[in-house]
Write a structure and sequence with these properties.
Two copies of one chain form a homodimer. Chain A is α/β, with parallel strands linked by helices. Chain A contains eleven helices and twelve strands.
Chain lengths: ~290, ~290
């Protein structure tokens, strides 16, 4: 549960967390199975609203104790935030068990958690076609060896620019991406907030800008919503071609843009798959140009 | 003349200045007429190399005194720089006189100088089709009234992100662009360095990323080279359509990417129009995607 303060308002104990944002976004495109843990204090009714929309919650454990809580406050331009509080609660002893019915999943996203647990989750999945993982500075500093081992087993690392700089020790994000690719993943997605996102891999680079929103309300969860859109497009297309990886980036960026328009996952309650299609189409106009006729 | 120190080396008293970078880039696409002032100490031989490539230097005055000098040092990631020295020299008393032969020019770029002088230059040109201007924080703070008056007479303001934020008082660059558009210009180009550039106007937004260079050597002059590519494409196409404004953004970005690959205007001595075409084509691969078939 997140308590968030932005220059535009505040939300207390709102639905939050990687899996929730991921699922709220992804389920607009494709069925989702989530694995996670909540405490007895969790507003399960709110979570169950997701199950009305292709989200299988049978991998969510309700454990004795308090739910994970994060509280943060954003600066006036929303590009910086201070963490006011982090209470692990039941998350501290979480050891994900993948339900038998989930083990054939072909598209797997490993949310931001201890890389040892990410690898443990991956070992419980039979033969995924495509595995992407997130991480954060905390693990880059504290569990570097485990994280590097995990990278040998994933197809795509999805991080923000400061994370890949810290991981690789190189401020230049394209060199940093190649550093990661030499360590296992075929692809790297670098999320740059208001500056868009970039996919590096397969000898190519693909950029997608951030959608030029009139108002950004709350950046929390944008990265996880991005991951949801990205993975759901690939799963739905059941394809890993250059064409579909590019489109997955655009779906990811579109979902990130919806996430920031309201607190929590509110915006995903309001929109339909048709709204997603409309936004994805409008990205085309943002970046496409025609070369001179020869 | 610029003296520049970057993490990769240094250059002393190298050819520099807005008009020089603009002309070096633009002349790869279209003839250029430049107006400016240098001191008796200026290396005119180096400047005359430009005249071999469609640059008309008859508007350059050689005045008694020292040339304008700037010295700066960039931080390790090249995104910050300290000005070590600025000596105005003959620039202090510069009052641009547009040669009679230049007064029919249809595409006019007003480099970064006192906005009163920019307006004075504009008044000397007969009936331009398209006028773009640059400015900087120094004028935004010190000559705000004159700058706002100038904006009523130009078609396009071309600035960086920090400048448009300061000018409009709004950190949100899309709102800031609209603020500018309400004051005269139809278009705003916002240069964001490593984060690319954006064109706002005509009810549209168009993004172009920065080219993913292996090595950025010296960022000095990238913005002026961008302006050179942008204006030269429009002049060459003799068109202001959405299609050509987009292409102009890509030519601008390509020229900016060449500028930063070497000190001063060195790179523009090495490349040909065919190299520019190749780079512009490679932008297509950076951003293009195909929508789902319906």
């Amino acid at each position: 549960m997140d308590s968030v303060e932005t220059p535009f308002g505040r939300a207390d104990d709102a639905l939050g967390g990687s899996a929730v944002f991921f699922a709220a976004a992804a389920s607009l495109l494709h069925p989702v199975q989530i694995v996670g843990v909540v405490g007895k204090d969790y507003p399960m009714d709110a979570l169950h609203r997701l199950s009305r929309r292709q989200v299988d919650l049978s991998g969510v454990t309700v454990a004795d104790g308090e739910s994970f809580r994060w509280a943060g406050k954003y600066g006036f331009d929303l590009s910086t935030r201070d963490t006011l509080e982090t209470r692990l609660g039941v998350f501290a002893n979480f050891k994900p068990q993948i339900p038998a019915a989930f083990r054939d999943t072909e598209f797997v996203f490993l949310g931001n958690i201890d890389p040892e647990l990410q690898l443990d989750v991956l070992n419980q999945v039979k033969r995924p076609k495509f595995v992407a993982c997130d991480t954060m500075n905390y693990w880059i500093q504290g569990k570097r060896t485990a994280l590097l081992k995990l990278l040998e087993h994933v197809d795509c690392l999805m991080v923000n620019d400061s994370e890949i700089r810290e991981l690789s020790g190189d401020w230049h994000i394209h060199r940093a991406a190649r550093w990661v690719i030499e360590r296992g993943p075929q692809y790297v997605v670098i999320k740059k907030g208001e500056h868009g996102a970039v996919l590096v891999g397969g000898g190519k680079v693909f950029y997608v800008p951030a959608f030029p929103l009139e108002d950004v309300f709350d950046p929390t969860g944008a990265g996880d919503a991005f991951a949801g859109g990205f993975m759901a497009h690939l799963a739905r297309a059941d394809a890993l071609s250059d064409r579909h990886l590019r489109l997955a980036m655009v779906y990811g960026s579109a979902m990130g843009s919806f996430a920031v328009e309201r607190f929590s996952i509110q915006r995903f309650d309001e929109i339909t798959p048709a709204d997603v299609t409309t936004r994805v189409q409008s990205y085309r106009d943002l970046v496409h140009f025609e070369l001179d006729t020869p």
